[in-house]
Design goal:
Alpha-lytic protease prodomain-like, Alpha-Beta Plaits, 65% helix, three-stranded mixed beta sheet, mainly alpha
Length: 314
């Protein structure tokens, strides 16, 4: 079942939800004086900035290939994920600073009921949006949507912990527990931000395609090799001949996947026959792995491609 909203529409909705949660959580923190709720509201500003930047990067990533970017603009989404991770860490440091100050000078929590209601309502909005973002991220293979969804999930769990914590403060009277929760929120946010930055760096360094996509590629190649033993199939080598694939290299760039490999066929084959089989294999691979761009180099059996070695910098 496909998502009803496009990635851009979802990110615009994410911006709207971020603005709404800033108001709701900010009001909850103001009327309760809870450091946990205040830190939760501060993180919503990160949600807003992240969604705005993600929208800009998704717009760029959707641009078609051009003369200066022949492989497209898909990697722009990694900048969104990395930027969001950096913002998360920055917000965590600010929360940590304010929480330590409040730990040294605790303040009582006021109007707990309204504060909890506002926090729970805003958390519900974030949870629903995170579910929609994850669903769309799988459908469109978008790391920008996934990063925004992961951040919102972190926000949901953080809000849940804060609600539980301030209820505990209300019943125990331990005022130090509230700023301690703020510190815990900050540390949790740092962890999530670090994971986003790391994943972005791996994408920018041409990380291999996901394991499930690579398995689909290998299964397709195995299927073609199995046909090589069928003498009734005119599109494969005759009995006694062979065919093989090697030097498979893959990478991921945002929504786009790339694969390069060598296809070895009998040297006495006509070029048209070999090219026809290669085209058939390319189509089969692209059908098996949506978003794949594959390059297959034809070589005769017994010949290996010469690897080009780049000399290290002096």
């Amino acid at each position: 079942m496909q998502s009803l909203l496009t990635p851009k529409a979802l990110l615009r909705l994410s911006i709207a939800v971020a603005l709404l949660t800033i108001v709701l959580k900010g009001l909850a923190g103001y009327i309760t004086h809870s450091m946990g709720l205040i830190s939760d509201a501060m993180e919503s500003f990160v949600n807003l900035a992240s969604a705005m930047f993600a929208l800009a990067m998704v717009t760029i990533a959707a641009r078609p290939a051009d003369e200066d970017h022949p492989y497209g603009h898909h990697k722009a989404e990694y900048f969104s994920s990395g930027f969001e991770g950096i913002l998360i860490v920055g917000a965590a440091l600010a929360i940590l600073w304010v929480s330590i100050e409040r730990l040294l000078a605790p303040r009582p929590i006021e109007q707990l009921g309204w504060g909890l209601v506002l926090s729970i309502v805003s958390t519900g909005f974030n949870a629903a949006l995170a579910w929609a973002l994850f669903r769309a991220a799988r459908e469109h293979r978008s790391i920008a949507l996934e990063a925004d969804g992961r951040h919102l999930v972190t926000d949901v769990w953080t809000s849940a912990a804060v609600v539980v914590g301030i209820v505990a403060v209300h019943f125990t009277g331990w005022l130090w527990l509230d700023p301690l929760l703020g510190i815990g929120v900050a540390l949790n946010i740092v962890r999530e931000g670090g994971k986003l930055v790391w994943r972005s760096s791996q994408g920018l360094m041409d990380e291999a395609m996901p394991a499930e996509s690579l398995a689909a590629v290998q299964a397709t190649l195995d299927r073609f090799l199995a046909r090589a033993g069928d003498p009734g199939d005119p599109g494969v080598p005759a009995r006694g001949a062979s065919m093989r694939f090697d030097d498979i290299a893959t990478r991921r760039a945002g929504q786009r996947l790339f694969a390069d490999l060598h296809m070895h066929v009998p040297g006495d084959w006509p070029l048209q026959r070999a090219a026809t089989l290669r085209d058939e294999l390319e189509q089969a691979l692209m059908d098996a792995v949506p978003g794949l761009r594959v390059t297959i180099q034809l070589l005769p059996l017994g010949m290996e491609a010469r690897a080009v070695q780049m000399a290290p910098d002096a």
